[in-house]
Specification:
about 120 residues, mainly beta, 6-stranded mixed β-sheet
Length: about 120
C-alpha cells in the first residue's frame, strides 16, 4: 500500500488545517487506519483512528474535541480536520494502518509537517 499525506503547513495557534491521506494499492475501508504524529524529539504516536472496521473514529486525549477524522470511501481518501491548533501540535503527521507497521516500512512515506506558531 502507498499512502500520501498532504495538507500540512505553518499556522498560528488557534488556526485550522485539514490533512488528506490518499491510498493506493489497498482500500482504506477494509483496513483499520490511523493518523499518527511525531513531534520533535518524540516518538511517533497514534492520535486518531478508525479501528476495527467501525465507522466512527477514536481519538487520543491530546486531540479529543479538536481533531476530527473522516474518510471518503469512494475516493479512498482519509482526512484529519485539525482545529484550535496549539504549538504542541507541531509535528510530522502520517497516516497508516493500525496496528502500525514497523518504523522502517516504506508505507510511512514522508508525512506532512505541521507547524503551529504561538
Amino acid at each position: 500500500v502507498q499512502l500520501v499525506v498532504s495538507g500540512g503547513g505553518l499556522v498560528q495557534a488557534g488556526g485550522s488545517l485539514r490533512l488528506s491521506c490518499a491510498a493506493s494499492g489497498s482500500t482504506l475501508t477494509t483496513n483499520s487506519m490511523g493518523w499518527y504524529r511525531q513531534g520533535p524529539g518524540s516518538e511517533r504516536v497514534l492520535i486518531a483512528g478508525f479501528i476495527g472496521g467501525g465507522d466512527g473514529a477514536t481519538y487520543s486525549a491530546a486531540v479529543q474535541g479538536r481533531f476530527f477524522a473522516s474518510r471518503d470511501n469512494a475516493k479512498n481518501v482519509m482526512y484529519l480536520e485539525m482545529n484550535s491548533l496549539k504549538p504542541e501540535d507541531t509535528a510530522v503527521y502520517y497516516c497508516n494502518t493500525f496496528p502500525p507497521p514497523p518504523m522502517g516500512s516504506a508505507s510511512w512515506g514522508q508525512g506532512t509537517q505541521v507547524t503551529v506558531s504561538s
